Structures
1.
Amino acid sequence: MRQFRQFGLKTKKLLDLNEFIHHKSSLYSYHLDHIYLVKRYSLLMASKLHLEVDPRKFEYIALAHDLFKERSLNPRKVSVQWRGHNIPQDTNRYVRMNLDILSQFLLDEYFNTDIQLHPLASAIFLIKELGVADPEILYPIMFHSCPIFPVYTTLNSVIRDMVDIVMLADKMSSNHLRINMREVAVRVDLDQIVFGSSGKEFNYTLGLLIARLISQGSSKETQSALMTEHYYNRLKEVNPLIANKCHIQKLGESKKWPKRNSQVLKLS
C-alpha cells in the first residue's frame, strides 16, 4: 500500500474507511494506487502553480473523493454501520435524502448531471458523519468528475484552482493506471501531455481541457458541455492556434501505450 502522512486521527480514519469499503473489491489495489497518485499529482501541480494551500488538504481530498465509488457498495442495502457511522450503500438514495445539504452549496438541482453521485455522496458523508465544513475540501471532492459551471464561477480563485487541480489529478491518475497497471487501451498518455516525456514541461491548461474531454466522452449533458467549453476558452486565450471545435474524437482512437514511470513517481 502506498504511504500517506497521517496528520491526525481524521486522516487515519479515512484510510481505515477506504479499507472497510473497498477491501473486497477486485480493484482494491488499483483504488489505493489511484488515491495515492491523485494526492501526488495534486501536490506537484499546486507547487508548480505556487498555490498557497495547506498540502494536507489535498491528501484529505484524495483519500475522500472516491469513498463511495459504486463498484464497492451493496445496493441491496441502504447502509451499513462502521464505528458508529452510517455508510451509505445506495448513493442515489443517499444523495436524494440529503438535498438540503447540497442546497447549501447550490447543488441540489444538479445531482442528475454529469457531476455523478459518488462525489456528492462523499461530500455529504464528510459533512454529516465527520463534521467537515471546509469548502476548500468539499468543492474539489464534489467537482472532481464534473464541476457545475454556474456554481464554479461563484467560487473564490483558490477554490477554483483546487477544483481544477483535483479534476486533472483524478484523470491523470486513472489514465496512468490504465496504461501501466491495467494495460488497457486509452486515447492519450495524459501524464506525458502535461509534463512532457522528460518531465520538464508543464502544459497545465491543455491538460485541463483534455481531462475534461475524457471525462465528458460522448455526453451532451448541459453542465458537462459548459465546463468543456470553459476549459477550451481558457486554452484558446493562451494558444490561439487550437482548433475552433474540440471534441473527444480529436484525441484519436484508443490504443495501448508503452508503460512509463509517472513524473510524480520519479520524484518519490
2.
Amino acid sequence: MNLTLSDRSTTSWNMTGYTTFHCPRGQRMKPHFQNLSIDCWQHTRLGISEVSFCLHHSSVELGQPLLAALEELLTQPLPVQRTLSLRPSNRKQSLTTIRLRLVDPRDNLQVMHIHSAENALIIEMTSKGHELVRQAISTWLSGSEDFGISPLRAKLKKSDYGALDKASAELWFWGPDWMP
C-alpha cells in the first residue's frame, strides 16, 4: 500500500510492518541521513549489560542527523522507522547502519530494545524509550561523553519491564575528548 505524503515521497508498509519512506529515485534514506561520520561498533560489557554498542563523533555537529531522525519519528503514525547510514570505520565489530524504530508498547517491550542485526544497530523504542534516547543524544551533542543508556534508566518496577527491555544491550556515547 502506498500513500502520497507530498510530491517528493511516499510511504509504504514493509514486511516487518514498519513504515519506511522512499524518495522519488528509489532511495530508502534521506540524503542528510546518509554517510554520516559517526563511528558505531559493538563492544563487550561497559556497564550493566553483557553487550554494549558505542557511538563516537569527532565534532558535535556530526551527530545532529541522529537527533533530526528521532524528531521525525514523532511526526508519523506508529510504527515508524528511520534508517541512517554511516561511513565505514576501522573498529572491530563496526556497524554501518542505524535503524531507529518507534512502536507502541506491548507485553515484551515497554521502553526499548537495543541490539544488532545484519551490520546494523537497531533501537526499537516506545515513547518512554524515545525520550531516553532523545535526552541522551541531546546530552551527547552538548559535549558530554563517556556515558551509557539502557531501558533500565526508565526507572520502572522490575515487573513492568518486558522481555525485550530486559534483554537489551546498552548504548554508550563518546566524543572528541574521549576515545575508547
